[in-house]
Amino acid sequence: MKQKHCDSITTDYERIFHPEKIAIIGVSAEEGNTGFGRGIFDAIKTIGFAGEIFLVNPKGGKIGDYVIHKQVGNIPEKLDFAIIAVAARLVPEVLEACLEKGAAGAEIISSGFSELGTTEGKDLEKKIQEIAARGIRVIGPNCFGIYCPKSGLTLLPGPDLSRQSGPVAFLSQSGGMSIDFAHTGKWMGIRFSKVISFGNGADLRETELLHYLASDPETRVIAMYIEGIKNGDAFFRAIKEAARIKPVVIYKGGLSLAGQRAVVSHTASLGGSRTIWQSILNQVNACQVQDMTEMAQSCLAFSLLPAKEFRKISVIGGGGALGVTACDTAENFGIEIPPLSAALQAKIEAFLPQPGSSAKNPIDVANPYVRPRALQEVLRLAAQDEQIELQIIIPLLYHYKPLAEARGKSVAEITPYKELAFAIHDIVKETGKPVIAVMPNPKKGADDLDILEMLALARKEFLERGIPVFDEISDAVRALGNVNTYYRKEGFGK
Amino acid sequence: MKQKHCDSITTDYERIFHPEKIAIIGVSAEEGNTGFGRGIFDAIKTIGFAGEIFLVNPKGGKIGDYVIHKQVGNIPEKLDFAIIAVAARLVPEVLEACLEKGAAGAEIISSGFSELGTTEGKDLEKKIQEIAARGIRVIGPNCFGIYCPKSGLTLLPGPDLSRQSGPVAFLSQSGGMSIDFAHTGKWMGIRFSKVISFGNGADLRETELLHYLASDPETRVIAMYIEGIKNGDAFFRAIKEAARIKPVVIYKGGLSLAGQRAVVSHTASLGGSRTIWQSILNQVNACQVQDMTEMAQSCLAFSLLPAKEFRKISVIGGGGALGVTACDTAENFGIEIPPLSAALQAKIEAFLPQPGSSAKNPIDVANPYVRPRALQEVLRLAAQDEQIELQIIIPLLYHYKPLAEARGKSVAEITPYKELAFAIHDIVKETGKPVIAVMPNPKKGADDLDILEMLALARKEFLERGIPVFDEISDAVRALGNVNTYYRKEGFGK
To answer: What would the pLDDT profile of A375-393 be if each residue is shown by its tens digit?
Structure first.
């Protein structure tokens, strides 16, 4: 996709995110080198980038079959994209050479620019901006770069990220947050269209990238971590426009006084007042989250649930206190857990152990060993109540550990998580009402790693069937609350 | 410790929590029996209860070397405590027999009483109360019983709980919550004096147990999960009295309308209004928490930190965005992260890698591989600033995984968590200022179980040296906020 830049040049995002020929500049051939250039080359090879990679270093040399060119000019072909990891003072010259080689964009991993607060750093960054304006779009400097699972570009420390593409895009001013969020997404089940760590944002940054992602057909959900912004008005217009089309989840760091001090942004940033941000984000119907965890959980819900509001839900399993917690949390987010009709309650009771269970809603199955087939019947019956728009099931799978020990088997072997995933998947297809799984676990010590393993495997099975999984009922309800707030407003995300 | 009951009889809590002779009534000798009686007998043997155990079942028989008596009356000795797991209708008769055998108390695991809402159930519970009033104190019915690490009494499904005793007592109306909290405490580092699941609370319940725990020398922190209470005035007077002496952490379930419906309490319970609870608990300086996680984290902080308020703290490690999150969260809880003096900043800089680090506070070490010795120097220097009352260190230990892979070793082998625990321990002793460790981990998938293992081992090392560990900076700061709120008021917990 090509887009206009500053009404003058066109940005070829296609060649930036899915390049066929890339150069990595600043890769050392030395044995055991741990520089950024070598790090990103190893990461990109490990993750399996399919295009052609050219390496550059004034010292030349070879890494395996890869010849290291002494200058960018020596690369025998035109470039689509460049990854720059040389000392700050050398960056302008290298960027210029990449422009000449036809690169549509470059990410500058190097630091030592405006973030230092020095005149030299600021001047170097200005030079980058001047070169960028002549036709090479820049991500960075002082960033971790681009992760695009489809093409195999990855972040600086990201050799082990997922190659599965998905609907969530993430923009981050912080490199640490970009890699942490990409890793969190991997196990939590968030699949990314692209993750962009833009660091100082000398050229491409929040507003323009948001415009791009709003119209990117690979992206259905946009998440952002921002500390300081450059042009408040333009940014909020961009959010407003994007949020009309798809959910925009925003984690704004530095809303406290101390936080603002910790944000070394050196940008003309909109004052970090909590109230201002809250009211503006509210106006444009963006989803403001309080931390990375809430951001991840909200992205998971937005990406796996149908695009609508779910006001009334059923909650199945878990036991008495978890049902109480579910109700308390749901009320906080305007979600109802209404009693099911008496007729349905009677039918559900037939599948529950007696005494101690309750078929009201929350439905307390009173026993962690109720078979998946019986739970499936309960889900099927509860879905027959017309009020119910979504179901939450809380299987307490960790209870299988003592059973496994008694039978001399592993917890993963004995726990029926696969059957449960299949059973839920069938019910979702049959009833058209989504199901969320909540799998809490109070046993996380060194003695209980087998439970953690089983739960990680269970999560995979559920996610492969499109069933979102959360650790705690309050996490699931909060994420659902964010989904509801977005779709409640007329004309959003449609 | 003996205490007066209803101004008439004396309760011998010592014989209830640390009994020498107990009976378990309702234990089946059948092979493969999974009844409650057998379950609790197995659990108590596994955990290693040191006293004498007598078994009772009308069918008689033997389990290993244990003879099963046909009636309580046949037990050849006086009892201290009884565990009753027979059908509801048989409970009164059995309880009466235990009273005759001299038992100071009994826990009734069986359900089928007032929680059913039937006349029969209510009548049976009334009978229990009548017998209890004649001198045997009752825990339950419809509960998981008592866990007392010192004596080796344990909850119904608790064979694998810790035998380490500690300062936290937990009272819970919900059995599920009692066992989940005990397990959570095990890996999180909460050590218990006693955990009491009191279920329907026919006899001993919130108010009287609170009185007992307030004066129990083994208990320094009291936590409670309550759904409905019996006598509002007496309960709040009991909290007020207890909170003067030691922190009382309260998780009240069922504050929502739906939650109240989910609470099948059948007790004359104080209306669940959120506002009323909040304002009363506030008045008596109890610490109200919103879920089990916050309750656990607060108990950890209360039990491992010195009894005082910590208004100004330093935050070390983690990287830019985590520092920003720390500041934002701290402000929410009235905690300051003030800049260190310029002189100290200069000294700290000498131990930090350049560029990218910051010695201001939050101190960004910019590199996850900074050695424990260097981190120790940073902690030592930051503590020299007189404003600083507590330090939070955020080692990003999961970053050692790629290094371990490169060196062909396990993550646990290569990560210097032991050195770090020793280094921090020394600094706490030297400076007298507590240190909290925060160890986040974005890698929790099936591919990264080795990281989870390493972190579980690291947590153990830290906890063994009295250093509280949290997963997220926001968790640590929230728990600290609760500690501060309690000790801020004059004359509490002293």
So the answer is: 999 999 999 999 999 999 9
Close Cβ partners of B310 (under 8 Å, ≥ 6 residues apart): B335, B389, B390, B434, B480, B483, B484
Smallest CA–CA distance, residue B212 to chain A, in Å, is: 25
Tally A–B CB contacts below 8 A.
190
pLDDT at B135 over 70: yes
Give A27→chain B minimum CA distance, Å: 18
Q: Which pLDDT tens digit goes with each residue over B300-321? A: 999 999 999 999 999 998 778 8
Determine the residue of chain B that is closest to A188 in CA distance: B445
Residues paired with A368 in a beta bridge: none
Phi, psi torsion values for B158, nearest 5 degrees: -120, 45
Strand order from edge to edge, sheet including B66-69: B62-63, B66-69, B52-56, B21-25, B81-84, B105-108, B137-139
Residue B373: how many other CB atoms lie within 10 Å? 12
Contact A258 B336 (CB under 8 A): yes
For residues B218 and A156, which has the higher predicted lDDT (pLDDT)? B218
Which residue does chain A place closest to B186, by CA atoms?
Answer: A445
| Nearest CA-CA distance, residue B435 and chain A, Å | 20
Check whether B268 has a pLDDT greater than 60. Answer: no
CB A359 within 8 Å of CB B290: no
E strand or H helix that includes residue A167: strand A165-172
pLDDT tens digit string along A109-123?
999 999 888 999 999
pLDDT grade for A273, boundaries at 50, 70 and 90: confident
Mutate to test the interface with B, among A40, A181, A325, A441 (most CBs of B within 10 A): A325
Residue ranges of alpha helices (H) inside A333-431 are 342-349, 372-383, 400-407, 411-414, 417-431
Q: Would you call A68 helix, strand, or coil by DSSP?
A: strand
pLDDT digits 0-9 by tens, A293-321? 999 999 999 999 999 999 999 999 877 88
**A460 vs B180, B255, B446: nearest CB:** B446
> DSSP string of B138-192?
EE-SSS-EEEBTTTTB--TT-TTS---EEEEEEEES-HHHHHHHHHHHHHHT--E
Asked whether the beta carbons of A190 and A298 are under 8 A apart, the reply is: no
pLDDT of A270 above 80: no
Among A93, A54, A51, CA closest to A74: A54
CA dist B180 and B162 (Å) reads: 13
With CB atoms and an 8 Å threshold, state whether B472 touches A291: yes
Phi and psi at A23, nearest 5°, equal -115, 140
What residues of B are in contact with residue A331 (Cβ under 8 Å)? Answer: 256-259
* Nearest chain B CA: its distance from A214 CA (Å): 25
Fill in the amino acid letter for B484. N
Burial B350-360 (b: 16+ CB within 10 A, else e): ebbeeebbbbb
d(CA A231, CA A462): 42
User: Given a cut of 80, is residue B360 above it in pLDDT?
Assistant: yes
Taking only the tens place, the pLDDT of each residue in A180-192 is 999 999 999 999 9
Collapsed DSSP state (helix, strand, coil) of residue A493? coil
